[in-house]
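[Meeting: bench + compute handoff]

Bench side (C.D.) handed over the final construct sequence. Compute side (W.E.) agreed to return the predicted structure before the next meeting so the bench team could plan truncations. Sequence as handed over:
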Amino acid sequence: MGQNAVVPAETVQRRWTVATWLLAGVDDFETVAHALEPLSADAIALQSVHERDADTVAAALGMQMAWEVSHYPRSRVFIGSSVGLAVLTPHRVSASHATVTSAKSSLWSTSRRIAQFCTVERHDHTAYTLVHAVGPTHGAMADAGGFPLVRMVPEQVGVDETRAIELPPEASAATSTVAEPIEGANGLQATSFELPWVKGDFPVI
């Protein structure tokens, strides 16, 4: 082999499982935790959830949690009841931020909507940035921080699983399940997929 020959990088398929659940109207977070536990998910996106409830679920699952506020409650008396978006993971959250996607930007407006961008890194050096929101995300810039992007549209759960969790184009072997663990609540979707990574650090994209 010549001195200038390029040695192909060794690649390996890494499997991830991600989930999304719109929790509007849900108040039984013990059941939420029990429903999520069997998934053994690498990352779970929860929408319309209070920070304390996301914390409760994360603690029950032994996970880390990153939460971003969407809007405050109508009364300043109940400031601890702010609604937002959360990502739970048993791995490392390396970054989390939100961007406003609605015309209303005041935290006191219940019409304010955000998209959360959260980067999760696993011990095997694979990582993804999850973006999720309630409502349209057309106002959200695709700020993935250089990592493959997984976009979640919870309103599509039970309607179109490929739109509910949109994977990177290079993803393969994708399988999805949709469940309704809580009667009258929105469905929970979990999707497992594989992506080729250069052995060590970087995705093949």
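W.E. noted at the follow-up: Residues 101 and 139 are 5 Å apart (CA to CA). C.D. will use this when planning the next construct.
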